[in-house]
Structure to design on (179 residues):
């Protein structure tokens, strides 16, 4: 099942909304119907995919994401996903779609994801490093769970939002962490 929406991109107004969370202030962006970004304040690549025409406004989609985040930060797996439309290359989007398939409370390694891609793409090799590049540029933190991707043998690796935030998110989901 593809979680990430695909659509022809026209120049449209983007909206943002700020949300307080246990990992800091979150900035969420939307085209009015889909979530296009969610960044933890101070994270690497903060708002890199955000356009120039931006208006801070409260919209129903932001109430939807607030509900999702409330469930998530209470320590439960939300039973719905708001519509997601991240900006990126087709390759990045395919990696992000795979991230959405990692269940709450579970992890995968970059190598696991590379092997999965190879199987899905008729044996065309994909390196763990290429996967890592796409994972690192994920513009929708938490919802597209890049924090669930670990290094070889399940060891903890970097996180654009900060390693301390990655640890907090993994612990919230009940994942044992090798540091």
């Amino acid at each position: 099942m593809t979680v990430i929406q695909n659509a022809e991109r026209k120049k449209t107004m983007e909206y943002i909304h700020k949300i307080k969370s246990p990992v800091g202030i979150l900035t969420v962006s939307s085209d009015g119907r889909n979530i296009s970004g969610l960044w933890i304040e101070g994270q690497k690549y903060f708002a890199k995919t955000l356009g120039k025409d931006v208006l801070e406004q409260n919209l129903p989609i932001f109430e939807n994401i607030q509900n999702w985040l409330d469930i998530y930060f209470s320590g439960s797996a939300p039973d719905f996903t708001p519509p997601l439309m991240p900006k990126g290359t087709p390759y990045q989007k395919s990696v992000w779609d795979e991230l959405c398939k990692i269940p709450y409370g579970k992890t995968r390694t970059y190598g696991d994801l590379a092997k999965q891609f190879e199987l899905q793409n008729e044996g065309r090799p994909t390196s763990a490093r290429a996967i890592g590049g796409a994972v690192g540029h994920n513009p929708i933190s938490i919802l597209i769970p890049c924090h669930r991707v670990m290094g070889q043998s399940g060891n903890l690796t970097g996180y654009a939002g900060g390693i301390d935030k990655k640890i907090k998110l993994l612990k919230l989901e009940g994942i044992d962490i090798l540091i």
Observations:
- DSSP finds five helices and six strands in the chain.
- The longest helix spans residues 60-73.
